[in-house]
Recover the amino acids of this structure.
């Protein structure tokens, strides 16, 4: 049970989802009724200049609402009052989607959050000599741009298989307000 006395400014709640596939996007298109082919058909997405399918905006937004619904125990402990976000970046097949909310203020039983949804797009893994050990869809399709590099979004880190190159981008910043029952 979540109670107001347990919450502190700066406290963080977080969710990670690493299962974005073409099949999942097709299923989402079917159940949501948003059958725009840029979400399900690579050829159409490429003609639109996207280099491959992208997730629906409301698909990724759903992970924000899910974060709060889970935190509030499906509204047993409180309710969502408001969520306001700005969709800035595209979510793609294979991305790791990280949704984070940090308590910014508490007023009575209302809790205010700064929300950040980040996409991690894997590009490739190289050995110490620079040879590609594994290439992900982003590397194959050229999802990473010169602008991404200039903005410092492209990063590397050492992993057991070699050096991982990835893009880390804030896709959706925003705010949220919840109200607790206790």
């Amino acid at each position: 049970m979540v109670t107001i006395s347990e919450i502190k400014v700066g406290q963080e709640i977080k969710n990670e989802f690493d299962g974005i596939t073409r099949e999942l996007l097709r299923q989402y298109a079917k159940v949501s009724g948003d059958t725009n082919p840029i979400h399900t058909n690579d050829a159409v997405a490429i003609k639109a200049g996207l280099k491959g399918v992208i997730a629906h905006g409301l698909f990724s937004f759903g992970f924000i609402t899910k974060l709060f619904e889970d935190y509030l125990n499906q509204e047993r402990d409180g309710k969502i009052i408001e969520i306001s976000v700005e969709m800035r970046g595209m979510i793609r097949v294979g991305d790791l989607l990280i949704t984070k909310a940090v308590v910014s203020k508490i007023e009575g039983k209302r809790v205010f959050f700064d929300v950040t949804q980040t996409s991690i797009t894997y590009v490739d893994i190289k050995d110490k000599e620079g040879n590609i050990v594994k290439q992900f869809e982003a590397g194959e399709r050229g999802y990473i741009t010169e602008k991404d590099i200039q903005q410092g979004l492209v990063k590397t880190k050492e992993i057991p298989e070699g050096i991982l190159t990835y893009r880390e981008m804030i896709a959706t910043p925003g705010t949220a307000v919840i109200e607790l029952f206790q």
The first helix runs from residue 22 to 32. The mean pLDDT is 96. Helices lie at 22-32, 42-47, 57-71, 137-141, 146-150. Residues 4-180 form a domain with the Thiol Ester Dehydrase; Chain A fold (CATH 3.10.129.10).
